[in-house]
Amino acid sequence: MAESGKTKLPDSAEDNGPVSKKARVADEVLSEPAAGSSGGMMLEDLPKEISEALDELDSCQREIDALNEKASEEILKVEQKFNILRRPMYGNRTEIIARIPQFWLTAFTNHPQISPMIDEEEEKCLQYLRDMVVDENDDIKSGYKIKFIFEDNPYFDNNELVKDIHLPYESPEDRPSVESTEIKWKAGMDLLKVKEKKPKRRGRAWADNTVSFLEWLTHGGDPSGDEIAEILKDDMWPNPMQYYLAPEVELEANGLSDEDEEEEGVEEESDVEPDTVVILDDEEEGEGEEDSEDNLAGEEAGGENEPTDELEKDEEP
């Protein structure tokens, strides 16, 4: 869904099995022993009034599940309707964004989760990114595509890179999967080749397990834990302007900004107890003694001069 507020469908909409399995109060269920217990509760062992109440509760829950399933179907219809209504608006937005140089690069580098993935070389490459588009499948539940449209650039021949995310729901045997466009790198411009040392990331050093933006874009596998794809679809795509206008994310080598480091320094100073005894080394102690002697000599010199001034005043006519 292209809304920033992601709608989570009830569980009953995510499987096509009978809704009754969500609330089954049958003998075999009640007879299963709880974890760590020596035995289970048999339905026939319950008092008659409790057994009758459980039967009524089971029937009531079946009705609730059936209504939830119907609501999920209606929600999908509404989402599909508004996805169609939004398409011309997104097309108009694309034309406006085309008049703003490096709009998407700026939005990416201002996003707190995406910015750390973009190293210095990839930032140069993403200067040629002209547009990003999220296309949800018509049925919404089965997946979506994230398309990156590039101008002609010195890095690769592709004008479009696509990450196609499949989220099958009709059969439990189907597995979620990802298909990504293979980047056709130009000679000597492959940014994904293994290097002895990765280039410095924007504002801080690379961690060993850091995945760069282009590595993520070309990576397949199970999309269930792909937070970046969800961020782009549910956060960036609905309103990229909020990140274009946001302050740029800059982190230092230790993961702290300059302001954070200053605050940390103040906190460390404030942690010192007022009665703390500071032990000086021999050199500092010697310097302290010399300062004390100089101060004492100055005081004595000042004391000798004071009476002289008074005598001079007395000798005046």
Automatic annotation (TrEMBL):
<comment type="similarity">
    <text>Belongs to the nucleosome assembly protein (NAP) family.</text>
</comment>
<dbReference type="InterPro" id="IPR037231">
    <property type="entry name" value="NAP-like_sf"/>
</dbReference>
<feature type="coiled-coil region">
    <location>
        <begin position="43"/>
        <end position="77"/>
    </location>
</feature>
<dbReference type="Pfam" id="PF00956">
    <property type="entry name" value="NAP"/>
</dbReference>
<feature type="compositionally biased region" description="Basic and acidic residues">
    <location>
        <begin position="1"/>
        <end position="11"/>
    </location>
</feature>
<dbReference type="InterPro" id="IPR002164">
    <property type="entry name" value="NAP_family"/>
</dbReference>
<dbReference type="GO" id="GO:0006334">
    <property type="term" value="P:nucleosome assembly"/>
</dbReference>
<feature type="compositionally biased region" description="Acidic residues">
    <location>
        <begin position="257"/>
        <end position="317"/>
    </location>
</feature>
<protein>
    <recommendedName>
        <fullName>Protein SET</fullName>
    </recommendedName>
</protein>
<feature type="region of interest" description="Disordered">
    <location>
        <begin position="1"/>
        <end position="43"/>
    </location>
</feature>
<feature type="region of interest" description="Disordered">
    <location>
        <begin position="252"/>
        <end position="317"/>
    </location>
</feature>
<dbReference type="GO" id="GO:0005634">
    <property type="term" value="C:nucleus"/>
</dbReference>
<keyword id="KW-0175">Coiled coil</keyword>
